[in-house]
Design a protein that fits this description.
globular, Fido-like_dom_sf, Fido, Fic family protein, Fido_containing
Length: about 240
């Protein structure tokens, strides 16, 4: 399933180390698009150019403080992901909570990095997340799965399933989607892949694939969606070098 992607990754790895300024410009491009699309999927109305100027420290008139904070927080969360990859830190529940804390910082500090104490429902989805009393148990099971069975999977499979299982648990009141996409890219980046973009225009296919995974435990559609974006990011890097 991943033969073509593996080949492209080998081609990219063979060209390392990549030119310094090429890497920096690719990083800036992907991280801007990652921030814009991840926030737009959740309803943030800033355009990609408005997102860019917010990242540069400029306030956009007519937009809410929350929308500005979502951009700045996402930037900080990406920096944290980079730190984890650079330091080769082991995956942990503490790490997940730290990521979520960054995502909700200044937006809802009472629930930043704190598991929800209320039942929630995912708008438009058939799947209903577990009640609060089950969250700790299911998060422990997620970590156990990651440390065991998941290590036998291809990194794309592992990253996609980590995202899907996490967002199915929906452990936090808010910010689960952004956190799940950060976890997906964290897993890919650990294995030397560039980050991927789940684009807002593909939101319906993304939601449908997740709902299918949650209701039938068939992850194929979601893994395929992630695989296409991995290949697109690899193609971008290969075209630049």
């Amino acid at each position: 399933m991943f033969e073509q992607i593996d080949l492209k990754k080998q081609q990219l790895d063979a060209k390392r180390p990549l030119p310094k300024y090429t890497v920096q410009s690719l990083r800036d491009k992907l991280f801007l698009e990652w921030t814009y699309n991840s926030n737009a999927i959740e309803g943030n109305t800033l355009t990609i150019n408005e997102t860019k100027v917010v990242l540069e420290g400029i306030t956009v008139g007519g937009k809410t403080m929350r929308e500005h904070l979502e951009v700045i927080n996402h930037r900080d969360a990406i920096s944290y992901v980079e730190d984890i990859v650079r330091e080769k830190e082991a995956f942990s529940e503490w790490q997940i909570k730290n990521l979520h804390r960054l995502v909700l910082k200044g937006i809802d500090d009472a629930y930043a990095g704190v598991y929800r104490d209320q039942q929630v429902f995912i708008s438009g989805a058939v799947h209903t997340p577990p009640p609060p009393i089950k969250i700790k148990e299911q998060m422990d099971a997620l970590i156990k799965w990651y440390d065991g069975e998941a290590q036998q999977l291809h990194p794309i499979d592992r990253g996609a399933m980590l995202h899907a299982i996490f967002v199915g648990i929906h452990p936090f009141i808010d910010g689960n989607g952004r956190t799940s996409r950060l976890l997906l890219n964290l897993e890919l980046m650990k294995s030397g892949y560039p980050p991927i973009i789940i684009r807002v225009e593909n939101r319906l296919a993304y939601y449908n694939a997740l709902d299918k995974a949650h209701t039938t435990e068939d992850y194929n559609d979601f893994v395929n969606l992630v695989s296409k974006e991995v290949e697109a990011s690899l193609d971008l890097y290969l075209s630049a070098v």
